[in-house]
Write a structure and sequence with these properties.
- With 249 residues, this protein is an alpha/beta fold.
- The chain folds into two domains: 164 residues, SPOUT methyltransferase, trefoil knot domain (Alpha/beta knot), CATH 3.40.1280.10; 64 residues, Orthogonal Bundle (Helicase, Ruva Protein, domain 3), CATH 1.10.8.590.
- Helix content is 45%, strand content 13%.
- Strands 3-2-1-6-4-7-5 form a seven-stranded parallel sheet.
- β1, α1 and β2 form a beta-alpha-beta unit.
- The longest helix is centred in the middle third of the chain and has 19 residues.
- The radius of gyration is 28 Å and the shape is elongated.
- The two termini are 40 Å apart.
- The protein binds S-adenosyl-L-homocysteine.
Length: 249
């Protein structure tokens, strides 16, 4: 899906920013770089700043106009350091990434970055469906263009990982660490109730109200099978009984 997302730099002055953009993209798994009328390209400086992302830089498509670079795109986001008139739907990078991923499932997507000094023109913004602003310090809102590319590409990657099966952070969950089933939870509540009675916890308070509150707490916690076993061990101990089994943890 990431291959359907292109990053477009418009009329970039500093070759270093082009190289740093290639690097930022490759770090996040993006590869399709478009350069609209770059002031100086290709350069040694860009390759030096690309730091190994030479493939992304070497494959960059150079065009004369933004319209050419956008050919084939069905969704386009323009980034801006300034909040412009409310002509465009305003997105933050996370919203932009979510929409980009959704749109990339069925078409081509572009995220466009402007000139170092003056950003994108209004005519260029007219070609975009949304305006993306990184919520920076309003008194000092303009990021270096390659840093802005990094922020957007990171959000795209996070959206991609969240939607992909092979998320590296996701390890296979052990059976005991799966959420406890309803009947396991009910068994635990019954045991908890008994234990509270045995230790004379309720006193004058209403057991139903206390149980309802505790159930609310456990529901929010997404209790696992292993945790239910630990809790039941504790209840048994409180009741002065030997735990039926020692939970392994
Ligand atoms: N004075 C220019 C600054 C351009 S910064 C202006 O006001 O537009 C160069 C490019 O980096 C911008 O065109 C945009 O693509 C990106 N950029 C910088 N800061 C940004 C921010 N806070 N949010 C979104 N994009 C930003």
């Amino acid at each position: 899906m990431l291959e359907n997302i292109r990053i477009i730099l418009v009329n970039t002055s500093h070759p270093g920013n082009i190289g740093a953009t290639a690097r930022a993209m490759k770090n996040m798994g993006l590869s399709r770089l478009y350069l609209v009328d770059p002031v100086d390209h290709p350069t040694y400086e860009a390759y030096s700043r690309a730091a190994g992302a030479d493939d992304v830089l070497g494959d960059a498509v150079v065009t004369e106009t933004l319209a050419e670079a956008l050919q084939g795109c069905s969704w386009v986001a323009g980034t801006s350091a300034r909040l412009r008139t409310v002509k465009w739907p305003m997105f933050d990078p996370r919203e932009c990434a979510a929409t980009s991923m959704a749109q990339a499932a069925s078409g081509e997507v572009a995220i466009v970055f402007g000139r170092e000094r003056t950003g994108l023109t209004n005519e260029e913004m007219e070609l975009c469906k949304a305006l993306v602003h990184i919520p920076t310090n309003p008194e000092y809102s303009s990021l270096n263009v390659a840093a802005a590319v990094q922020v957007l590409c990171y959000e795209v990657r996070m959206a991609f990982l969240a939607s992909s099966e092979d998320r590296p952070l996701k390890t296979k969950t052990a059976k005991e660490d799966m959420p406890a089933t309803t009947d396991q939870m009910e068994g635990m509540y019954e045991h908890l109730y008994q234990a509270m009675e045995d230790i004379k916890f309720f006193g004058t308070s209403n057991p139903d109200v206390i149980m309802r509150r505790l159930k609310g707490l456990f529901n929010r916690a997404q209790t696992t099978k292993r945790e239910v076993a630990i809790l039941r061990g504790i209840f048994s101990a409180a009741q002065g009984k030997k735990s039926a089994r020692t939970p392994k943890d």
